[in-house]
Amino acid sequence: MDADPSNMEVKIGLAQIKIEQSNMKEAKDLINSAMSLSNEEIPPLLRYLKAYVLAESQEHNYSEAIAELDLIPESMQTTKYLTLKAKCMVKNYDVQGGIAIAIGITNSEPDNVEALLALAEGYLYQDNLEEANAQVVKAEFAADKNDVPEASLLKAKIAERREEYEEAERLYNEYIMKLPNQSRPYFEYGRFLKLRNRNQEAVDTYKNIIKMFPGTEVADNAQLEISSMN
């Protein structure tokens, strides 16, 4: 990027790397910079990345993420973009709308793993644990032998809702093992520990996040979680 600061493709590539590193602040800056370079229609991928960052950053601005995805022309909408929209709608309390989009995708693509997981999350928000679990099982079957980290997370949340806490903890740790270099599994496990009043273990988990992702938004968020328990 230093050699050609006006290269949009480079900025998009770097933004994707920052997202993988859980550094949403720098990803957001790169995306906004790339958008400022566009003299024509903003590429759908760029809008998708902006929506993803809006949804996954500390503020979890799902309504703005949905609005960004809606700016992608209908002819350029892909199931990847629609799946993110479904997830954002569910988390923005338009659960039925999100489920409807996910069902539309799975009707035409029954083995679409991400859409099945989005559908499972929608049913989880409705507290329909049996149907949520059924969709997770379908997603794992569709993925064949490939690991599906989000399936472990959803199964952990289902077990937690069922008050099967030992199984939930096993699944949260499985989620961490599948994505050891990302922050979300540790945050989810920290949340679980905090809710179980295992505060010292939760603090240790958040301290580990700060050590793994120094100087990032997720580290700041982890520090806030620690402060809330003091």
Number of strands: 0
Order of helices and strands: HHHHHHHHHHHHH
Rg measurement, Å:
18 Å
CATH topology (fold) name of the domain at 1-77: Serine Threonine Protein Phosphatase 5, Tetratricopeptide repeat
Specify the CATH architecture of the domain at 1-77.
Alpha Horseshoe
Task: Write up what this structure looks like.
73% of the residues lie in helices and 0% in strands. With 230 residues, the protein is mostly helical. Among the domains are: 1-77, Serine Threonine Protein Phosphatase 5, Tetratricopeptide repeat, CATH 1.25.40; 181-230, no CATH class. Helix 5 runs parallel beside helix 7.
Produce the secondary structure layout.
Blueprint: H1 8-20, H2 24-36, H3 44-56, H4 62-70, H5 79-91, H6 95-108, H7 113-125, H8 129-142, H9 149-161, H10 165-178, H11 184-195, H12 199-212, H13 217-228
Helix pairs in contact: 1-2, 2-3, 3-4, 4-5, 5-6, 5-7, 6-7, 7-8, 7-9, 8-9, 9-10, 10-11, 11-12, 12-13
